[in-house]
Structure formats: structure tokens, C-alpha cells
Design brief:
The complex is a heterodimer of chains A (116) and B (115). Chain A has 116 residues and is an all-beta fold. Chain A is built from no helices and 11 strands. In chain A, a hairpin with a 2-residue loop joins strand 7 and strand 8. In chain B, 37% of the residues are buried. Helices cover 0% and strands 53% of the residues of chain B. In chain B, strands 2, 5, 6, 10, 11 and 12 form a 6-stranded mixed sheet that branches. In chain B, strands 3-9-8-7 form a 4-stranded antiparallel sheet, with no helix packed on it. Chain B is mostly beta strands. The chains are: A mainly beta (116), B mainly beta (115). Chains A and B meet through strand 5, strand 9 and strand 10 of A and strand 5, strand 6 and strand 11 of B.
């Protein structure tokens, strides 16, 4: 149990376009989902935390209008990179946490975004 | 603020060698501690965890003990295999003053095991 999927696994888009990445918890309800960005050979940087039915909480330095997060249901969160630029190229990883006291996160396989 | 520090890699070992990857942390609260593993091109997988002092997390031959007195959570394995080659991340989860949890990851340590 506790499987998280992401779609697409990789995407190439042109500069100026928007890209949506989906994160789904397949076999559990995720009250909280997290979006991370990972640069090559570096650690994960938390971008935002989303709770089902409420606005996402963004980390300092992350542009809310550029990285739109929607957590519409207990099994789905989406990240939309708006007006993408080459510097947005990165590996985006989502994770989900069940309701309850456990702090364990379950990670998706990641989405590699390349902006040309 | 909270932080996680892990030893820099890459670490290169021969098969069946003993592995230690050091991890120390600073936290204002009482965090839970985790080790995650990332294989090339994939997301992170939880390897093991510990939620309180002196807890030992273990999985697939890997072990780590939550040491509050030294604020450490070192990862060990007695005999590594080629299939253990991956990047290992130490992480903590702590409660913010807002009541939400924050997760802090170390920079990752790349392990390469040679046959």
C-alpha cells in the first residue's frame, strides 16, 4: 500500500507555455501533499505544502503565481508551472502523507521537466 | 533553524564492505528521523525511520539509531551489494509553530558499490 504516482514522468515544453503535473495517491487518502524540486546532484527543496480543500502554503522564495498548486481531492494534487522558462527545468517530486499521527511521506517517482 | 548534515560523497566501496553514512541534525523540537534512498531516475523511497530517542530503524540490512545525545542518525550496513548503489538522503520531520510539519532533507550521499 501507499503508492503515489505522478504524471507525466517527463515533459518537454517550449518557453512561455504552461505545464501541469499530476500527483495521485493510489491506495490511500492524502490529507497533505508536498511538492519538491530537485536540482541535479542536489537535495530536495520543499516548494509548497497543500492540504485538501485549502490553499497551498508556499515556502519562502517560491513564486505562488508561477507554481500553481491545486489539491482538489484527497487523492489528487496538481502543480502547474506557468509561463515556463529554461531555468524552471528540473526534477519535480511530489509526496503524500496520510491523515493521522504518522509523519511518514510517500513519494512519487518524479517528473522531469525540460523547458526549451 | 532545523537542519540536516550528511557526509559528502561519493562513497565508493567494494561489494561486501561495511557501510557508514554519517548524519547529524539540529532541531528545535523533537523530530522524527528518516533515511530515504533514490535510485537513478526515480523518486525517493523510505528506507527506515525512527521516531524517538534510542529507536533503531532497520530495513534490508540497513540500520540507524536515533541518538539524541549526539543528535545523530548514522546509516550502517554490514555488507553492501552492487544493487545498493544509489543516493541516500537523511531527513527529519519536525513540528512548526504553525502546527504543520516541516521536512528537512540532507544533501544526499551517493554510494557506488563495485563488484
Amino acid at each position: 500500500g501507499a503508492v503515489v504516482s505522478q504524471h507525466p514522468s517527463w515533459v518537454i515544453c517550449k518557453s512561455g507555455t504552461s505545464v501541469k503535473i499530476e500527483c495521485r495517491s493510489l491506495d490511500f487518502q492524502a490529507t497533505t501533499m508536498f511538492w519538491y524540486r530537485q536540482f541535479p546532484k542536489q537535495s530536495l527543496m520543499l516548494m509548497a505544502t497543500s492540504n485538501e480543500g485549502s490553499k497551498a502554503t508556499y515556502e519562502q522564495g517560491v513564486e505562488k503565481d508561477k507554481f500553481l498548486i491545486n489539491h482538489a481531492s484527497l487523492t489528487l494534487s496538481t502543480l502547474t508551472v506557468t509561463s515556463a522558462h529554461p531555468e524552471d527545468s528540473s526534477f519535480y517530486i511530489c509526496s503524500a502523507r496520510r491523515s493521522g499521527p504518522s509523519r511518514e511521506q510517500y513519494f512519487g517517482p518524479g517528473t522531469r521537466l525540460t523547458v526549451t | 533553524g532545523d537542519s540536516v548534515t550528511q557526509m559528502e560523497g561519493p562513497v565508493t566501496l567494494s561489494e561486501e564492505a561495511f557501510l557508514t553514512i554519517n548524519c547529524t541534525y539540529t532541531a528545535t523540537g523533537y523530530p522524527s528521523l528518516f533515511w530515504y534512498v533514490q535510485y537513478p531516475g526515480e523518486g525517493l523511497q523510505l528506507l527506515l525511520k525512527a521516531t524517538k530517542a534510542d529507536d533503531k530503524g532497520s530495513n534490508k540490512g540497513f540500520e540507524a539509531t536515533y541518538r539524541k545525545e549526539t543528535t545523530s542518525f548514522h546509516l550502517e550496513k554490514g555488507s553492501v551489494q552492487v544493487s545498493d548503489s544509489a543516493v541516500y538522503f537523511c531527513a527529519l520531520s519536525d513540528l512548526r509553530t504553525s502546527g504543520t510539519y516541516k521536512y528537512i532533507f540532507g544533501t544526499g550521499t551517493r554510494l557506488k558499490v563495485l563488484a
